[in-house]
């Protein structure tokens, strides 16, 4: 049984987000659990979506969220200037 390219892309985006969350929220178990729960919920909302345009939009959004978490998570973990 073959997995369609869009399903493979969704799985890759999901795993990437989970990995990013673990890296950004290292040591904060509550934040990791909350992010994981939210990610799961968002992906499940569109699990039966068949419109390729919608799927591409959601996968792009997942990549953007991952990038933003990496950029802003690192900044948030750094020293605070007062």
TrEMBL record:
UniProtKB keywords: Chaperone, Mitochondrion, Transit peptide
A single BP term in Gene Ontology: mitochondrial respiratory chain complex III assembly
Gene Ontology cellular component list: mitochondrial matrix
Subcellular location: Mitochondrion matrix
GO MF terms held by the record: protein folding chaperone
Top-level division of the source organism's lineage: Eukaryota
Role according to the record: Assembly factor required for Rieske Fe-S protein RIP1 incorporation into the cytochrome b-c1 (CIII) complex. Functions as a chaperone, binding to this subunit within the mitochondrial matrix and stabilizing it prior to its translocation and insertion into the late CIII dimeric intermediate within the mitochondrial inner membrane. Modulates the mitochondrial matrix zinc pool.
Similarity comment text for this entry: Belongs to the complex I LYR family. MZM1 subfamily.
Subunit field text: Interacts with RIP1.
Protein name: Mitochondrial zinc maintenance protein 1, mitochondrial
Organism of this sequence: Parasitella parasitica
